[in-house]
User: Fold this.
Amino acid sequence: MNNHLQSRRNVIKGIFIIVVIILIAKLFYIQIINSEYKRSSKNNAIRPETQQAARGEIYDRNGKLIVSNKASKDLMVIPREVVEFDTLRLCELTELSVKDVRTKLKDAKNYSKYIESVFSQQLPLQFSLQIEEELNFFKGFYLRVNTSRDYNVKVAAHIIGFLGEVDEEKSHEKYYTKGDLEGKTGIESSYEKQLRGKKGMKMVLVDALNRTQGSFDNGKHDTLAVHGKNITTTLDIDLQKYSEKLMQNKIGAIVSIEPSSGEILTLVTSPNYNPKQMTGRARSKNYSLLYNDVNKPLFNRALNGTYPPASPLKIVNSLIALQEGSVNVHNHVACNGGFEFGNNKIMRCHEHPNLVNLKSAITVSCNTYFCNLWESFYSKYNSVYESYDVWKEHVKSFGFGNYLNNDFNSGQKGFIPESSYFDEYYRKGRWKSSTILSMSIGQGELLCTPIQMANLASIIANRGFYYIPHVIKRIDNDTIPARFSKKHHTSINPQHFKIVIDGMEQVLENIDGTAFMSKVKGISICGKTGTAENPHGDDHSIFIAFAPKEKPEIAVAVYVENAGGGATWAAPIATLVIEKYLNNTISRPILEEKMINGNLTNK
Ligand SMILES: [Zn+2]
Assistant:
């Protein structure tokens, strides 16, 4: 046993001695024999520099380049190596204040004395050239080759998104260093991992004057940065440009979708900004300006704006009544200006031919008819609770009340109240169908977002199903999320869609239709106007539509805030978008001009 222990000790001793000999030999080789090391030990230092990868480019659905890169340089700092320097001169070269320079140095030290931090990002060329010449006066600083975003368009800012400095927490993750940029919103954020590529590492020889002397050991120890993956979006950038132009000087949103795939063709929020404003050194100044703008250009109304669905919900209520068998499509209702309910209350209607059935009630948007439809649906069940739950579950199957699980990292789910909400508001057992009658015409508690409304148009176009609206079409050498190719069926049977679609076609085709003035010759558009009551000011103008009626190629939702009825602004704008997409020419130039030049921001 002892012998065995002794021999193990000898083996360990032997290994130890061999290791020491190897180390001595290596040191001898480095310091005495190898000239490369010899040179570097006398005059040069080796500095590991990360090599930034260029981000992937972003294209539209037709291969048009939307976002690319341009060369830029970042000033980096390794706090441990910093020696006293001329602060004022550095301020001049970086356009930073003395206070900023001190704060940045302190922050970099707190982050790590040994690891590099970004000191100043995306230096303009003339500055980076000047800094390069004077680097010997700024020990511990060096320039890192990088790229910054270059935009080929002035539109789609909210979809593209912008880059910003990584959060403090994230800066300690393996991939990032303090001051690095990452996608903060839009596609830049949702597909950050694919777009950012892979950093490389270069061992750089630096002389005593802080000048780089090229790669150490002929770059044998370097790894190359890998370009980020290019992304093709579902956007039609020309249609996006056109849609943004129609929405200039207006507040609201346009979302258009290809129904057969759920691909988002345009996603407009207005007002917005030029994507260039959120890049480069003016970014934080511009961000504050936009943030403080009273019309909130940073707020993405298409995804986050919650509005009442208004009259387009009459389509959903029709489909629910058809599915539950609570409506006879042949029966007519006489509309004499409104629907009486409760104690002498009346839900008013507007002028239209007196007798309406389901189809024509959609065409003229008769409130009286849909109040009747609501009441007969509710009378089918034993209690208002049972009816409400049946109704609510149908509504949910249209994608209302949830985030839709799309590929944007911001959004709102809207609001579908539970019956307990009414119990709390009116007390349990004290509310009935007429208490919540306003939901029969899409006013009241229910709230939704423009993207959900575009999805509704898409569902009707598809006669009962949808794909999650999404903006990713292709990622080079990668796959797109599987959830975007999954069909979601509503709780309504396909055969019930025919009559509501016929009614929607007449909205534009029939002289009594609420959007007859927006009819486009040669295109069978099916649409529905809406007017959302707004307690803070004028009504919001709403229109949802799809076209052509058979084999639909585009479904659209338009919201124009404080613009009045749906027929005034939203319907003309939606039909112009449809005409542009399907025909690529506009047959109504006067209407087009009126829409483009209309200014509703001061209302
Ligand atoms: Zn009516």
